[in-house]
Design brief:
The radius of gyration is 16 Å and the shape is globular. 0% of the residues lie in helices and 51% in strands. It has strands at 10-15, 21-26, 36-41, 47-53, 60-65, 71-76, 80-85, 104-106, 112-118, 123-128, 132-137, 142-148, 154-160, 165-170, 173-178. A hairpin with a 4-residue loop joins strand 11 (132-137) and strand 12 (142-148).
Length: 180
């Protein structure tokens, strides 16, 4: 991958479910600009498609593609999750990627740190510095439930599709939550 196309350091990556698209998030805090998402097509020969400015104020902390691969969710220093269309997908539209009219999901009280999509039923999980773990239904953009981690610090999460569980790195321990 030719990273010389980036004018700033890369802070996070997301790869589409098909593996044909890569999104790279850059930080805007260093030079006073808003963070950018750079899109690459990874089929055959790598191809830089375009960059898009986000509504994040200074930093992107997490990104993930919608399970259908036609939009990207971006989280960072705001308390919402922004949805960006994928280059070349704007005219196609996707009824699978519905969100509120402003194109964002909001339930956190502070920085959203990490995002993860899971399941054939199009769900998204987010966690933030506020200690909340939020579960979203992507088709409607509805917040399904949220769990508070009660003073514990969550560092990362990963979805295990075979076991349909969410692995959470909380404090210094890995905890699993069944998503059935």
């Amino acid at each position: 991958l030719n990273t010389t196309l980036f004018e700033k350091p890369i802070f996070c990556l997301a790869i589409s479910p098909s593996g044909r698209m890569l999104a790279a998030g850059t930080n805007g805090v260093l030079d006073g600009y808003r963070p950018m998402v750079h899109f690459y097509r990874t089929e055959d020969q790598e191809e830089y498609l375009e960059r898009r400015q986000t509504s994040r104020r200074s930093m992107i902390h997490g990104m993930c593609f919608h399970p259908d691969g036609h939009s990207l969710y971006v989280a960072g220093d705001g308390n919402d999750i922004e949805q960006l269309s994928i280059p070349g997908e704007e005219e196609r539209g996707s009824d699978q990627a519905a969100t509120p009219a402003d194109g964002s999901l909001s339930a956190h009280h502070g920085t959203v740190l990490r995002l993860e999509t899971f399941g054939s039923d199009m769900r998204l999980i987010s966690f933030g510095k506020d200690g909340l773990l939020c579960f979203w239904e992507l088709k409607s953009g509805q917040l399904l439930t949220k769990r508070e981690l009660a003073g514990r610090r969550m560092y990362d999460m990963a979805y295990d599709p075979e076991e349909h569980t969410l692995l959470l790195l909380i404090d210094d321990q890995v905890t699993s939550i069944s998503l059935d």
